[in-house]
Amino acid sequence: MSQTITIDPVTRLEGHGKITLKTNDLGEVSEAYFSVTQVRGFEKFCEGRPYYEMPSLMARICGICPVSHLIASAKACEAIMSIQIPPTAAKLRRALNMAQTIQSHALSFFYLASPDLLLGMDADPVDRNIFGVAKADAKLGLAGIGLRRFGQHMIELLGRKRIHPGWVVPGGVTEPLDSAKRDEILGMIPEAYANVRLALDWYKGIVDRFRDEADHFANFPGAFLGMVSDDDGLEFTDGKLRLIDAEGKILLDGLEAAQFDDHFGEAVEPFSYMKFPYYKPLGYPDGAYRVGPLARLNIASHAGTALADIELKEFKQLAKGPVLGSFYYHHARLIDILHGIEVIEQIMSDPSILDKHVRATAGVNRLEGSGVAEAPRGTLVHHYKVNENGQMLWANLVIATGQNNNAMNRGVLQTAQRYVKGDKIADGMLNRVEAVIRTFDPCLSCSTHAFGQMPLSIELLAQDGTRLDEVRRG
Amino acid sequence: MSEVISKIKVATVWLDGCSGCHMSFLDMDERLLELGSQFDLVYSPLVDFKVYPESVDVALVEGAISSVEDEHKIHHIRKHTNFLIAMGDCAVTGNVPSMRNPFGPDEILDRAYQENVSLQAQIPCVIVPALLETVRPVHEFVKVDMYLPGCPPSADTFYTVLSDLLAGRTPDIASLTRFGA
């Protein structure tokens, strides 16, 4: 008899995700649905507003990665203006984007994931937070706070605010960098290196304890999408997109933002406000793909900076082709951080970074424009249409986390198939389901909320609605 | 001052906002550990307690009220909270989330799930909560004890407000932050 299992945030107050599992006639879990329960409407309510407002408005999609939205949005506006921004403005934005990648990854790795990794998947909930991490391993906790502070303070130095800086505008940035701020940024770099080195060494020391999770957390073949530089290196801001398959074969290359819609579509499922992007030639759901730190490292042939190159080489030895286990998103995040610090150091050491020409101006020269950037969680696309007066007519946003939607669903299914047996929900289910979703670091505020741990209860129901089993945390 | 026998219980709640207020709260950096030794964070996206406690001393609420789920939550929170702070411009005025109000929920949903879609166009309706007709600030639903504007309020603002409240002082909000700050 087939059954439906619901993992529901019944308890009420912090539930933004809900999971439903269906079993087949043999009692095996055959389908899994991860529902996202919020929608905000930026694609619609931008209508009628001037396009040059979009970077600061669209940044309000997310307080964790506002800089990604600033950059993708500004690039879409610059396509409408048909201009190239001054080279120094481009460098400053690259540095800003790396600062944001560092602070966001520090949040994910240290504040949200490291309680599991340090204290164990079944630790007391009282300690499963950054306070507990700092208590159990002060050096690790302070390294995490320090890395997040590094990224946020650098954003503040460049853009005057840690969150929602207004500095990035269509055409470049509003004001050049001065030498005092440049020197302060350079002065913070040695500590940042020490902190990420500590984290990498620590991670490599404990990862073997999680072999089972690494094998079963959304570990499956599938495609990866991400940005690369002209010479196939890691790139977050000014590269082109590449799609590879599970063997590493290139399916699409040199893709510009404006071509995104030609190759990728979005499907809707009735159970979630988060859409399901897919690669059109393979259809839905076969054309689902992953984005983010793991995708970027699988796609790039090298990092392009000395220290990250060493780490990336080691990372690539985890598998013959692309690394398929989503648990390794954690590892990939630390390599992104290391690379980010190196890129910032390079950019800030370039004398031209103090150049005063940082903003180009133009009016509306095209009625449509797209922009793309690598957000911490992966590829982010903004696509706008305007009228002759520059008023917004339409927008479509393809958010990084949305592109991992299918993989998160598959990951939940994989975990469920391991931990649900017959009409019983095994004890490890709740923690593992949370943890498998957390490997993707879903920035659900880009489409919903819940960046911490979700309250979950699981109900295992017979088809007639009879409750067979229930597990609840809270 | 009487001897403190138990630490005050603080909650942070995230409704229809961007999480930027919570990020700014985290921007207290090491000072958060110092404050954390003076209060218990009993409910928050940042910690792992799943149920809103029966009795919370101070709740910081980020975001506006935009879905039936948000509405349900804010009433529950008010009932179990002594001192409720509307945290950030979305909670205080509706701010960016309320920009959808002139369009209404149907147009919002049509754009996202009918127009900007290449397959299986449909409005999600299973499991997901219904949207309210309009997005409104927290005080239109429940009594608010303190307004903390800003997009987001700065980490220094959070530090001063929490330090004052822990010491039994009333913070001077106007000197710390403003709408749009």
Structural key phrases:
heterodimer, A: 474 residues, alpha+beta, five-stranded antiparallel sheet, globular, B: 181 residues, alpha/beta, Rossmann fold, five-stranded parallel sheet, 7 strands, elongated
Question: How would you characterize this protein structure?
Answer:
The complex is a heterodimer of chains A (474) and B (181). Chain A is an alpha+beta fold and 474 residues long. Chain A has 15 helices and 18 strands. The relative contact order of chain A is 0.20. Chain B is of the alpha/beta class and 181 residues long. Chain B has one domain: Rossmann fold (3-Layer(aba) Sandwich), CATH 3.40.50. Chain B is built from six helices and seven strands. In chain B, the strands form two sheets. A five-stranded parallel β-sheet of chain B has the order 2-1-3-5-7. The radius of gyration of chain B is 18 Å and the shape is elongated. The chains are: A alpha+beta (474), B alpha/beta (181).
Please give a quick description of this structure.
The complex is a heterodimer of chains A (474) and B (181). Chain A is α+β, with helices and mostly antiparallel strands. In chain A, 41% of the residues lie in helices and 19% in strands.
Layout of helices and strands, plus pairs?
The complex is a heterodimer of chains A (474) and B (181).
Chain A: E1 3-8, E2 17-23, E3 29-36, H1 42-45, H2 54-58, H3 66-81, H4 87-119, H5 130-136, H6 138-159, E4 168-169, E5 172-173, H7 179-206, H8 211-216, E6 223-228, E7 240-244, E8 250-255, H9 260-263, E9 264-267, E10 276-279, E11 289-290, H10 293-299, H11 306-316, H12 329-348, E12 368-375, E13 378-386, E14 392-398, H13 400-403, H14 405-419, E15 420-421, E16 424-425, H15 429-439, E17 457-462, E18 467-472
Parallel strand pairs in A: 6-11
Antiparallel strand pairs in A: 1-2, 1-17, 2-3, 4-5, 6-7, 7-8, 9-10, 12-13, 13-14, 15-16, 17-18
Chain B: E1 8-14, H1 20-26, H2 30-36, E2 39-43, E3 56-62, E4 65-67, H3 68-79, E5 81-87, H4 89-93, H5 105-115, E6 131-136, E7 146-148, H6 155-166
Parallel strand pairs in B: 1-2, 1-3, 3-5, 5-7
Antiparallel strand pairs in B: 4-6
